[in-house]
Design goal:
The protein has 582 residues and is α+β, with helices and mostly antiparallel strands. 44% of the residues lie in helices and 21% in strands. It has 14 helices and 15 strands. A hairpin with a 4-residue loop joins β13 and β14. The termini are far apart.
Length: 582
């Protein structure tokens, strides 16, 4: 009994190489997020999932994995001391080994029982196969606790106490249980060491809306106040002031078109063309962007940006060709549908290029090029110009972006923890927190959320451990009411008539695709239009069923003009009309 019984035990059960289970995967996440949507459904979102979008009225629950947190801290250079990093590595491996050991016990127990009842060669082989992995786990304990440590002595005492009675499985379980207690004590010692070294953990969140980027309150992690509670209307049966103005513009345009009586859709095509005077500005920006990338011609990131630039040029060329082409007035449905697709594609390319630009700028390595500062300046300028084009409502693209609530981005360089964000000891970090999105204030489809987990050292530097962004959209089924310019064709005629209308459709969003939420969303509902089939300037209400695509930008339906007792079908569009009408 004076010899190292633990080592003998390990050898008897075919101890060998360390199990991979004793090591932590590099992609282990510290923070996991569970979303509870307005209907009570639960979804995993954010890091490690395909879901980067949350419903705009959801509640987010954050879970902090303290073990993964310690592992992440141990990997950061220049923060934790070598002693602390080594202790974190040891504790992490032992925790994984203990967990693996308890997982292996049932299989090993079944094999040992079978062998005790049947001493055949087959039973012996089965036992050896089942017990060998458990032996390798125990071998890790022997390597982790040198013979002259108190932990090794206590584990040996455990083996001695169980040697006289009990099964081999009881001995394995006793070793695992004692080792688990030793690891718990090592964890407490680790927390004390981190505290003495002045390490602290911070976790913060921000929301980017049309009013700017502001911090949000995460209970237990900061002292920020909640914003005034605001719940985004889910079942919207009214139109706001901007949409009311849009409807008036459609009414004016429809009356103007009815007075001209001829070439209705050709005139609409001319109106569309007037909204597309942004091509020279885009091209100038693209050229400056390519010049800025010359210093990084071989970088994979630069190649990705160049590919996005090429796609953007293709979209611009396609839209320019559309604007120059002559359109047959009798092919109105094809013309309007084509325009919706072309304009939507340009808008999605613009948003995609902007995202790639910002990701490239934020991730530009320090040693990427000697003139890194110059490149960053050029990228910042170009990204800013793209933002301005999307926000400028004097252009067709800008008004379309506003109409579709183009997704906002977060300027990560501007995000800093304020004094309101608490500094937690490594061992006292809260295991969870929550954020009700209604407490983030007034927000709209496409507004962004950003979260950051960091480790710092008192009087020293800090480092980011994890960061992730989410975007808010109406995802759960909702009703949206929107103005629309309708081109109605009474049955058995070849005449289109323009009219203003309002559509109320049921739709839902995507958790995976901001593009679909902005440009690809479909809906089904009803349309009410102010028709005038007999041209006497008296409104005739038409009621129709409607299907919408491209986030309600293109609408198609079949209805009935009850005043005239005539059925009709129509195509409707939501287009940014130029100033001055048609």
């Amino acid at each position: 009994m004076n010899r190292c019984i633990l080592t003998i035990c390990c050898a008897l059960v075919l101890g060998g190489a360390l199990l991979p289970a004793g090591q932590v995967r590099a992609d282990d996440r510290v923070v996991t997020i569970t979303e509870t949507d307005p209907d009570g459904g639960k979804h995993q979102v954010g890091p490690g999932t395909e879901n980067t979008i949350v419903d705009i009225n959801s509640v987010l629950a954050f879970t902090i994995d303290r073990d993964a947190l310690k592992t992440a801290v141990g990997r950061v250079d220049g923060i934790a001391s070598q002693k602390l990093a080594e202790q974190i590595s040891t504790v992490t491996k032992l925790q994984a080994a203990v967990a693996e050991g308890f997982k292996l016990l049932p299989t090993a127990g079944d094999a040992l029982v079978a062998y005790s009842l049947d001493r055949s060669d087959a039973s012996r082989r089965r036992m050896a196969i089942a017990v060998a992995p458990l032996g390798r786990v125990l071998r890790q304990f022997a390597d982790a606790f040198p013979a002259d440590t108190g932990a090794r002595a206590r584990i040996n005492d455990t083996i001695i106490r169980t040697a006289a009675g009990g099964t081999m499985l009881d001995k394995y379980r006793a070793i695992l249980e004692q080792t688990a207690r030793e690891v718990e004590q090592m964890n407490r010692d680790l927390d004390d060491l981190a505290r003495r070294e002045g390490l602290y953990i911070q976790f913060g969140g921000w929301v980017a809306t049309g009013e700017g980027t502001i911090p949000v309150h995460l209970t237990g992690f900061d002292n920020h106040p909640n914003a005034e509670p605001y719940e985004v209307t889910r079942f919207d049966f009214s139109i706001d002031d901007d949409e009311r103005q849009e409807l008036e513009n459609y009414s004016t345009a429809a009356a103007d078109l009815r007075q001209k009586e001829a070439g209705l859709l050709s005139q609409v095509g001319d109106t569309v063309k007037k909204s597309l005077d942004v091509t020279p500005t885009w091209e100038s920006c693209l050229k400056r962007l390519e010049t800025a990338l010359d210093g990084l011609a071989t970088a994979a990131e630069a190649t990705k940006v160049r590919d996005e630039v090429a796609d953007m040029r293709t979209a611009i060329a396609s839209l320019a060709a559309y604007a120059k082409a002559e359109h047959d007035a009798d092919s109105g449905v094809a013309m309007l549908t084509s325009f919706g697709q072309q304009f939507g594609e340009l808008g999605s390319q613009a948003a995609g290029l902007l995202k790639v630009l910002e990701e490239f700028r934020d991730g530009l390595p320090a040693a990427a090029a000697a003139d890194r500062a110059k490149i960053q300046t050029a990228l910042n300028d170009c990204a800013g110009e793209f933002k301005d084009l999307l926000a400028d409502e004097s252009t067709g693209l800008g008004r379309l972006a506003a109409l579709l609530d183009a997704s906002r981005s977060i300027n990560h360089e501007a995000l800093v923890f304020g004094s309101e964000v608490l500094k937690h000891d490594l061992g006292s970090v809260p295991g969870s927190t929550r954020l009700a999105l209604k407490n983030t204030g007034v927000r709209a489809d496409g507004d962004a959320l950003s979260f950051r987990l960091a480790v710092g050292k008192a009087g020293g530097s800090s480092a980011e451990l994890e960061s992730f962004d989410l975007h808010m959209f109406k995802v759960a089924p909702f009703i949206v009411t929107s103005p629309v310019l309708v081109y109605a064709q009474p049955r058995h005629t070849n005449v289109y008539q323009a009219a203003p209308g309002v559509s109320m459709v049921v739709s839902r969003g995507s958790r995976k695709s901001a593009f679909r939420n902005r440009f690809g969303r479909i809906g089904f509902g009803i349309n009410i239009s102010a028709l005038d089939f007999d041209n006497d300037d008296n409104i005739e209400l038409g009621f129709a069923g409607v299907a919408t695509v491209a986030a309600d930008m293109v609408q198609v339906g079949v209805g009935q003009n009850f005043a005239q007792n005539r059925s009709y079908w129509f195509v409707g569009v939501r287009l940014p009309l130029p100033e001055g009408g048609i």
